[in-house]
Specification:
Elements lengths: L1 E6 L5 H12 L3 E3 H10 L3 H12 L5 H12 L8 E4 L5 H10 L4 E6 L2 H9 L1 E4 L5 E3 L18 E2 L6 H24 L3 E5 L7 H23 L1
Parallel strand pairs: 1-3, 1-4, 2-3, 4-8
Antiparallel strand pairs: 5-6, 5-7
Helix pairs in contact: 2-3, 4-5
Zinc ion binds next to loops.
């Protein structure tokens, strides 16, 4: 069950991928997390990535593909994965098909105003990476992480100008990827125009597509 998660920044796909990962007991691989880990370790690769990410630009294909390929070859991915944040370009999609068979692509969609309000209000813990939202999921104490007491901050790629840039880059570069998967009949559209409390309505749409997937492969075996 190799599932690709698509959707513009701020659509909530990270949250949905986490829930799905627990339900289906296969890992969620976030390319954003892979990037942040590399940056935190301050390797040469990490510093290179940081330059792109802080401007809201995409990290070059070659670097991203290498990072993802290595991660998907690890043991915990042998029964499948929910891959969040990759592929974002046609070149990445083509590269991925060379090293992993894709079972389904879940494309989360929401209106632009929902995306802007979600991203602008997000705060991240500097210590443990937990995320909050000033309106939807506020911490108990303003600016402080409930989990570890760390300080919350506005990620540089979630500042208004970076958000606008990310949405523009997303439209230019990632929309063709959606067309690419549609042609291959792998694409499922998930309506994510729901409030945080209505997360089940989004997850049940995903489950429907993933259940069919199981039936399809059983049928193929018979
Ligand atoms: Zn924390």
């Amino acid at each position: 069950m190799n599932i690709v998660i698509l959707g513009s920044p701020g659509v909530g796909k990270g949250t949905y991928a986490k829930i799905l990962s627990e339900k289906f007991n296969i890992p969620r691989i976030s390319v954003g997390d892979l990037f942040r880990k590399a940056m935190k370790n301050e390797t040469e690769l990490g510093r290179k990535i940081e330059d792109y990410v802080s401007r809201g630009d995409l990290v070059p294909d070659e670097t991203t593909i290498e990072l993802v390929k290595k991660r998907l070859q690890e043991d915990d991915c042998k029964n499948g994965f929910f891959l969040d944040g990759f592929p974002r370009t046609i070149a990445q999609a083509e590269a991925m098909e060379r090293f992993k068979k894709i079972s389904k692509v879940l494309n989360f969609v929401a209106s632009e105003w929902i995306i802007m309000s979600r991203l602008g209000g997000r705060r991240t813990c500097r210590e443990c990476g937990a995320t909050y939202h000033v309106k939807e999921v506020p911490p108990k104490l303003e600016g402080i992480c409930d989990r570890c007491g760390g300080k919350l901050y506005l990620r540089s790629d979630e500042a208004p100008q970076a958000i606008k840039n990310r949405l523009r880059v997303y439209l230019e570069k990632t929309k063709p990827v959606i067309g690419y998967f549609r042609k291959r009949k792998l694409l499922a559209i998930i309506d994510a125009n729901y409030k945080f409390e209505e997360v089940d309505k989004v997850i049940s749409q995903c489950e429907k597509h993933l259940q069919n997937l199981g039936e399809d492969s059983r049928r193929r075996r018979i």
